Structures are given as structure tokens and as C-alpha cells.
Amino acid sequence: MTNATFDHAENDWGYRRLDVRLFRWMRAGHGARLLLLPVACAIAHRSWAPMLLTLVIMAGTMPAGGWLLLQVLVTATVAQVASKQCAVFWAAPRPFAVGLSHNHLKHGPRAGLPSTHAAVMGSVVGFMAVAAPTHPLLAVLGAIALATAWARVYAGAHFPSDVLLGLGLGGTLGWAGARLFGLG
Question: How many C-alpha atoms does 147 have within 13 Å on its Cβ side?
Fold first, then answer.
């Protein structure tokens, strides 16, 4: 679908109007700011590594750190599965699938609402916010999750609402998971 076609179809996608405006305002998906696109792609592909490293360091400073790490990873897996099931149910296309950008991340055509990356990272942050609310590295986890959300939009893989819903879904599941494991 071309931009012109999407502009016309946008009237049928009421909930996407603001998304499209924000996406275009960010100049997402086209590398208008050439230095930002490679940075966004690198963050979108590799932010899991600093997230995991930060999580391991946090867990290592806490009692039963290995058990805590297992609990948060189980919760993140639940968030991943839930996010993918929601994406199948809602079947909302990604920006590159409707011609708004290039597919810079070489992503498959699977629907993108909610963002699974954002859901998984949101679940880690939500879980650790309950398990270690005063830990100084909690802010680092949050910053990594937000940077990833921005990068996924800027690289053209998601609309802003995809990542916001993913962060919300993940944060809620992370909070609930920590409570189910008896933390907080």
C-alpha cells in the first residue's frame, strides 16, 4: 500500500490517525536523520543484551538471585506469548506493511500490535519494580525499555501505540507475575 493509498485508508483507521501523524512527525522509517537510523536499528536488534546484563547484575545483588532471575524470565516468556496472541487476534499491520516506511529491521510481515519487544521489556521492568523498587539499576532497565520502544518505531517496525500497548501489557504482566511469586 502506498502512502497515498494509506492516506485515503487512514479515514477507515480512526485509532491509527494519531499513530500515523506521530510516525510521520518523528520522520520514522525513512532515515531522514541519517545518524539516528543506524542507532535505532542497533538498539532495536541488540537492546536485549544490556537488558539481560542489567537484570543479571540486579539479581546478583539480591537474596535468591538465581531464583529471582528464573522468575522474571518466566514472566517475560508469558508476556511474549500473550503479546503474540494479541497480535494474531488484532492483526494490525506494521508501518512498513502499509507503505509508510522501509523494512529496516528485515522484519517478517506478522502483525505488530502490541510490540512483543516492548511487552517483554515492560514485563521485566514491571517485575523488578515490585521485586526491587529501590534498586539503583531499576532506572537503567526502564531506560533500556524506553529506548527500545523508540527504536522500534523509528526503524519502521511499529506505530507508537504498538509500543505503548506492549509496554503497558508487559508492565502489567510483570507486576502481576512478581505478586504471584510472592514478591513485594
Answer: 19
C-alpha to C-alpha distance for 107 and 96, rounded to whole angstroms? 9
75 CB contacts (<8 Å, ≥6 apart)? 123, 124, 127, 173, 174, 177, 178, 181
Which amino acid, 100?
L
Question: What DSSP string describes 13-41?
Answer: -GGGHHHHHHHHHTTTTTTSSTTHHHHHH
Predicted TM-score (pTM) of this structure: 0.88
pLDDT tens digit at each of 184 positions of the chain: 444 444 444 444 567 888 898 888 888 877 656 688 889 999 999 999 999 999 999 999 998 889 999 999 999 999 999 999 999 998 899 998 888 888 888 888 888 899 999 999 999 999 999 999 999 999 999 999 999 999 999 999 999 999 999 999 999 999 999 999 999 7
